[in-house]
Design a protein that fits this description.
single chain; mainly beta; Immunoglobulin-like; 5 domains; four-stranded antiparallel β-sheet
Length: 525
């Protein structure tokens, strides 16, 4: 039998070889891989390699860094694909050098290899526009528009700027920007230097990344001139009229008004944003300069009287259920808003004044909570040790609670303390159904920390849920830490249940508590 088997093999081989122009190998077609394009660009703050390719069968694609470390490893099935491969952390420029793109067939045979060389970022400052505010016979530098040019091969992420004029120095955050390779772009930064000489002075400027490294610096002759208009507010407190005058910083307003509103119940995230911190410093300083009060309660009531005097306005008169939370800078510029807008501006100012404050969410209303070590004899704490501060009614003092908000059980307190706020969204979700029976969803998740504290040891979970809320095929990834203002991308692969209808949910768990959730609009399988 063994001899007969060998003969059979030989006969088959001879038969296959007898066809004209045909060999045995032609019956086992090789996998073909075609790379259509590759380019470097920014993907929501991540320097990334954008690939477009086609494959005739299953492949494994691998990307190695300059140190030959594996940056990316993924399988693909037959067809056309577009892939975005992150080369580094959020708003960090990766190392320059040669990157190696390799492709293997299903038998682990290398069928494609390409070397990609990229140079580091290379920023230069080509122009500076100074923002000057003239008030009370003095010149104040309140902002810069900086033109940056990137001559390198990777995107650049300017983070902060330090300016020095007349031996006075100030630093501020640059509004989030990316300068792509071979691109020139204007970036804005709020800085504050008070009482600067009107005579020509030397302005020294340096632009840094998030690690504090100088990306570009320059000097120029500074010319103080009035080019920032005023914002003026007038109101009455304890029988006296007050006037508050502030610089109208249009680039700050334009930045905040262009941001998408957050899908979140915890509105302290609107207060925590750092790009208006120095401006809020200025507002608080100017506000306190209008009063000689030394008692904490009087200071708080005076500050609140300013916001209480601003016009109350619903977000959308035609749709009262539509909320549009305003950042504090928006509220100041618009000089009107609803309870959430007024509460957030009040909380931002009192927090700047070093008071222990919170946002208090009630059904269809929001107020501010203030904790004081001293007691208000005529009032009691409203919730969690915070006195109630109403911001929508004129001359409404700290501790006084409107009748309609007395005794409500459904109250949530959000302290403006040092804590993390985690949100996540889906960058993309792809369903993979193959001929060998695989059926799963591959989902890329973007997580961000909008709080004031590094988030540590939290989980990102994904699962399918039936109509009774029972989870199936759960997968999870543990994140060791995520710094304030940072973002991270993780990937989950979750098998699709076949025997019942379900929806896909992803959740973030911090300290064993679910803090954010997303759900698919599609029903599976």
């Amino acid at each position: 039998m063994l001899k007969n088997a060998k003969v059979t093999v030989i006969i088959i081989f001879m038969l296959l070889s007898s066809f004209s122009g045909c060999t045995l190998l032609s019956f086992f077609e090789e996998t073909e891989f075609l790379l259509h394009s590759s380019s470097i660009a920014d993907d929501e703050g991540f320097t990334s390699l954008f690939l477009s390719f086609n494959t005739t069968d299953k492949i494994t694609l691998k990307l190695l860094g300059p140190n030959r470390n594996i940056l990316f490893l993924e399988e693909y099935y037959k067809g056309a694909h577009d892939e975005v491969i992150s080369l580094g952390d959020y708003r960090k420029t990766p190392s320059s050098g040669t990157y190696y793109l390799k492709v293997y067939d299903d038998n682990e045979k290398k069928i494609f290899e390409n070397e990609l060389f990229f140079t580091a970022q290379n920023l230069t400052i080509t122009k500076i526009i100074e923002k000057w505010w003239f008030y009370d016979e003095m010149y104040f530098l309140v902002g810069l528009t900086i033109t940056l040019k990137n001559l390198g091969g990777f995107p650049a992420y300017p983070y902060s700027a330090t300016v020095k004029v007349d031996n006075k120095e100030s630093s501020g955050f640059i509004l989030p920007s990316v300068i792509l390779p071979h691109q020139s772009k204007n970036v804005d930064c709020f800085v504050y230097l008070d009482d600067v000489s009107s005579e020509d002075s030397l302005l020294e400027l340096s632009v840094r990344n998030s690690d504090g490294k100088i990306l570009a610096d320059t000097t120029q002759t500074s010319h103080s001139s009035k080019n920032i208009p005023n914002l003026e507010y007038n109101w009455k407190y304890n029988g006296y009229y007050n006037t508050l005058i502030l610089p109208d910083i249009d680039f700050l307003y334009n930045y905040y008004s262009s941001l998408e509103r957050l899908v979140i119940e915890d509105y302290t995230a609107y207060v925590f944003d750092v790009h208006d911190d120095q401006y809020i410093d200025l507002v608080a300083e100017r506000l306190l300069a209008l009063t000689d009060a030394s008692d904490n309660v009087d200071i708080i009531n005076f500050a609140a009287s300013f916001i209480q005097s601003l016009e109350y306005a619903e977000d959308d008169e035609n749709d009262p259920t539509c909320e549009y939370p305003r950042y504090p800078v928006e509220m100041l510029k618009d000089a009107q808003g609803d309870c959430e807008d007024k509460a957030m501006l009040t909380a931002a100012l009192l927090d700047n004044m070093d008071y222990n404050v919170s946002l208090i969410r009630l059904p269809n209303h929001m107020a501010v909570g203030v904790h004081l070590d001293e007691n208000l004899s005529e009032y009691e704490y409203y919730a969690d040790g915070y006195y109630f501060l109403e911001t929508t009614r004129n001359r409404w003092n700290l501790g006084k609670v409107p009748d309609e908000y007395e005794g409500i059980a459904n109250v949530t307190v959000y302290p403006l303390s040092s804590r993390s706020i985690l949100l996540h969204g889906w960058k993309n979700a792809t369903r993979i159904s193959s001929s060998d029976g695989l059926d799963y969803v591959k989902i890329k998740i973007l997580i961000e920390n909008l709080g004031r504290k590094t988030a540590e040891n939290f989980e990102v979970k994904g699962a399918f849920f039936n109509q009774n809320g029972i989870s199936f095929n759960a997968e999870a990834v543990l994140i060791s830490s995520l710094a304030v203002g940072d973002k991270k991308v993780v990937e989950l692969k979750i098998n699709v249940p076949q025997s019942f209808s379900s929806t896909l949910k992803t959740q973030i768990y911090l300290d064993n508590k679910m803090v954010h959730e997303r759900e698919s609009s599609s029903v599976f399988p």
